[in-house]
């Protein structure tokens, strides 16, 4: 790292889980200050804040921001210089569902633009929705790395659950997916037209993490 030049740092963006800003500065002043570190490819801080739902807070002191607002401002700062490689540490931490969606959409937008984003999270639903590949890290080592789709195919049981009503009572039955077409009980349930729900038994990434590592997410 001693021999890297400014071009190297211009290509990187980082957003830590605990954002640090100059509390007496406004959001605009903070972004302008950090933006001055970079020589080119500067994005409009006000536009970034608008995408994060922070338009009205552009000239507000950061000391008046909530934790969720600081998290979103932190994300704006990471992308100020339009970096190629971005590290995001728990980017949805402390956010309500509305703002989680804004952050997810923003990350997906940057991903679609060809940015490489390395995301650290304990929220497996976020990882599944945003990531092309996930890595399970245990005691500082990568134990498994694969796409969410492949992992769920490998670890999920090929079982179909049918929930239906019979004389006012809700009943749940499971069938093997391979033999579903020839299963007479399943066919009879379909004919009764009392089906409430049909679903596959698919493991979540959290289930797979626990099964693979023997540890709960913390």
Automatic annotation (TrEMBL):
<feature type="domain" description="ABC transporter">
    <location>
        <begin position="5"/>
        <end position="93"/>
    </location>
</feature>
<protein>
    <submittedName>
        <fullName>ATP-binding transport protein</fullName>
    </submittedName>
</protein>
<dbReference type="InterPro" id="IPR003439">
    <property type="entry name" value="ABC_transporter-like_ATP-bd"/>
</dbReference>
<dbReference type="GO" id="GO:0005524">
    <property type="term" value="F:ATP binding"/>
</dbReference>
<keyword id="KW-0067">ATP-binding</keyword>
<keyword id="KW-0813">Transport</keyword>
<dbReference type="GO" id="GO:0016887">
    <property type="term" value="F:ATP hydrolysis activity"/>
</dbReference>
<dbReference type="Pfam" id="PF00005">
    <property type="entry name" value="ABC_tran"/>
</dbReference>
<dbReference type="InterPro" id="IPR050763">
    <property type="entry name" value="ABC_transporter_ATP-binding"/>
</dbReference>
<dbReference type="InterPro" id="IPR017871">
    <property type="entry name" value="ABC_transporter-like_CS"/>
</dbReference>
<dbReference type="InterPro" id="IPR027417">
    <property type="entry name" value="P-loop_NTPase"/>
</dbReference>
<keyword id="KW-0547">Nucleotide-binding</keyword>
């Amino acid at each position: 790292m001693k021999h890297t030049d400014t071009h190297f740092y211009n290509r990187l963006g980082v957003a830590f889980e605990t954002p640090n800003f100059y509390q007496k500065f406004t959001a605009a002043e903070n972004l302008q200050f950090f933006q001055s570190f970079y020589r080119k490819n500067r994005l409009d801080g006000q536009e970034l804040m608008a995408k994060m739902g922070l338009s009205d807070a552009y000239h507000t002191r950061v000391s008046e921001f909530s934790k969720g607002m600081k998290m979103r401002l932190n994300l704006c700062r990471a992308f100020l210089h339009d970096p190629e490689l971005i590290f995001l540490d728990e980017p949805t931490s402390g956010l309500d569902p509305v703002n989680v969606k804004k952050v997810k959409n923003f990350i997906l937008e940057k991903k679609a633009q060809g940015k490489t984003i390395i995301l650290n999270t304990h929220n497996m639903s976020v990882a599944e929705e945003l990531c092309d590949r996930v890595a399970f890290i245990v005691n500082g080592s990568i134990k498994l790395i694969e796409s969410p789709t492949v992992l769920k195919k490998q670890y999920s049981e090929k079982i179909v659950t049918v929930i239906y009503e019979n004389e006012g009572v809700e009943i749940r039955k499971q069938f093997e997916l391979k033999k579903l077409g020839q299963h007479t009980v399943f066919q009879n349930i379909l004919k009764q037209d009392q089906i409430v729900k049909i679903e596959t038994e698919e493991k979540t990434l959290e289930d797979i993490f626990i099964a693979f590592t023997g540890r709960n997410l913390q």
